[in-house]
Design goal:
It is a single chain. By secondary structure, the protein is mainly alpha-helical. The chain has one domain. Helices cover 75% and strands 0% of the residues. It contains five helices and no strands. The longest helix has 45 residues. It is elongated, with a radius of gyration of 24 Å. The N and C termini lie far apart (84 Å).
């Protein structure tokens, strides 16, 4: 065996084992958060549909302000929950990458690039996966403007 082959051999130490366990747990948490984010979107749409039917019954099918305010508030609430979960999903991914980088440094792995993940509340609030909330809120605001101006009644 040459010296290069010996350098590539990997033997886990106790610290590596602990870090790999942490990486596994963080990976599982990231997957669960990701699934929850998708569920938030489905629940939001379902709740808006249910609220429209309920508002129809409560208002005797007379169009009023609540038809636009309630869906907007539902979107706002789910958007806040979703971007908060997205933020923590990014934070756990960043921690996972840090653990993997520590393992690589400890084992003197040369040339390994670490993926830096930017974690910010602003980027969590306004990323592509949040667009469904913006579209639904836009419809509610557009309908509200039409209702207030008398274009629909």
């Amino acid at each position: 065996m040459s010296n290069d082959d010996e350098k590539l051999e990997y033997k886990r130490c106790g610290n590596d084992e602990i870090d790999w366990i942490e990486v596994g747990q963080l990976h599982e948490a990231t997957l669960r958060i990701s699934q929850n984010c998708f569920e938030f979107k489905k629940l939001c749409i379902g709740l808006i549909g249910i609220s429209a039917v309920l508002l129809g019954k409560l208002t005797s099918n007379q169009l009023d302000l609540s038809y636009f305010v309630v869906p907007f508030l539902i979107c706002l609430g789910f958007w806040i929950a979703d971007f908060t979960a997205y933020y923590y999903q990014r934070a756990t991914r960043k921690r996972m990458n840090k653990c993997i980088s520590v393992i690589a440094e400890r084992n003197k792995l040369v040339g390994r690039r670490s993926n830096d993940i930017d974690v910010s509340w602003y980027k969590s609030m306004f990323n592509g996966s949040m667009s469904i909330y913006f579209v639904l809120s836009g419809f509610a605001i557009f309908g509200l403007v039409l209702f207030v101006t008398g274009c629909i009644s």
